[in-house]
Amino acid sequence: MSAAAGKDRDSTQKKPMDIEGAAELQKVVARYRDGKIIKGFTRNFFANKDLFHVSPPDNPYGEGKIIWMRELKAVFFVRDFNGKPEYRERRKYKAEDSPFGRRVEITFSDGEVQVGVTMGYSLERVGFFITPADPGSNNRKIFAVSTAVESVRRL
User: How far lies 101's CA from each of 65, 91, 92, 105, 133, in Å?
Assistant: First the structure.
């Protein structure tokens, strides 16, 4: 290609996030029903889709692994991949808390319990989001896969 032919082209290399319309990278921990855990970044998680991709924590723009929703318990959208193991998450609301949405307690098939708010849920859908009751939680939000939920109780 001649210099003249390429003079109007932007030769600046762009990361995927610089491309118009590219989705924001989100830190996730995908927990499978069998206990397996995958940590990484996703740009294509949609609550109504059957799958999404997760790229490794050390290579967010690398090739993503396909994650099938039907195999999962939940997807945790996290602040940090390591979390705070010593932190004891609050599972109740304080009297002065006034979150927007329905307060719920979710019990997963494996016995794990999460408390938070949801904008609505239907066990007929693939899953639903909850925002944890504890603002100090490492989880920003949780996508609970409906088939891995044993019960949902309104609080």
Answer: 33, 16, 15, 13, 11
Backbone torsions φ then ψ of 146, nearest 5 degrees = -55, -40
Q: What is the pLDDT along the chain (155 residues), one digit of tens a residue?
A: 444 444 444 333 344 444 444 578 999 999 999 999 999 999 999 999 999 999 999 999 988 999 999 999 999 999 999 988 888 888 877 777 778 889 999 999 999 999 999 998 888 899 999 999 999 999 999 999 999 999 999 98
Q: For 59, list phi and psi in degrees, rounded to 5.
A: -150, 70
Q: Any idea where the domains of the chain sit in the sequence? A: 23-81+89-154
Q: Are 79 and 140 in contact (CB under 8 A)?
A: yes
Give the Cα separation of 113 and 105 in Å (integer).
Answer: 7
